[in-house]
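Researcher: Checking consistency across runs. Here is GlsB/YeaQ/YmgE family stress response membrane protein again:
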Amino acid sequence: MGFLWALIVGGLIGWVASLIIGKDVPGGIIGNIVAGFVGAMIGQAIFGTMGPDIAGFAIIPAILGAIILIFIVSLVLRSVRRK
């Protein structure tokens, strides 16, 4: 059951980050989950574990990390599409 909650929270983190930055995550729901998980790792490495913790995710750093990840992915995809 814990893994299911982690998938749901990871997906929500990716979705919220995509809403904040105004860019869709490639891959739909799976992309949101991946952005949430990877963003949480990035955010916790940079900002620590401040704020509330839900399903093993420190929410504030996870959202900030997901925003960073989505921004970088969108820059890379934009440069690939131009070539």
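Researcher: Does this match what you'd expect to see?
Model: One thing to look at in this run: The mean pLDDT is 91.
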